[in-house]
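Issue 218. Parser rejects a valid record. Input:
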Amino acid sequence: MDDERAAYWRELHRERPERIEAPGPGRESVWDYPRPPRVDAASARLRVEFAGIVVAETERGLRVVETSSPPAYYFPPEDVKTAFLRPMRHGTFCEWKGEASYWTLSARGREAEAAAWSYPSPSAGYEALAGWFAFHAGRVDACYVGGERAAPQPGGYYGGWVTRAVAGPFKGEPGTERW
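Output the parser choked on:
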């Protein structure tokens, strides 16, 4: 399928919810995020905790913002305790970013499958993500943006982090498959 036809098909099969929350001062609406997604520098310190260990922490993070989803945050590999990560055979394909690899997080006798993912060789336009790690907030003990504990994106599939800084509704819950 050529690029023009693929873009037409995606737009044809995408819907917007009837009610979109107004973001208010100091907040962003996920409905103002672009499609295809954009990679930005994260403006706050990011932290991931699992089994009583800070497994990732950075002030140099990136975030990926995409229409209908809260930001997914990425950590440079040097700010991740990779000794706790074990590669999985499982992978997925993002139409924008390319092939994702998944990682099981293992520490202190606990395991969380597919708790992290990365793009070893991302598609053009997403090279900044190469080798960086993102964590699924619903599969670790806690994720923080600044001092705020983030909630996982609804539905369990997508990896966005929900904070007070973003307004929804968010893709992931039943009935949102075509957003």
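Fixed in the parser; the record now loads. The chain has a mean pLDDT of 93.
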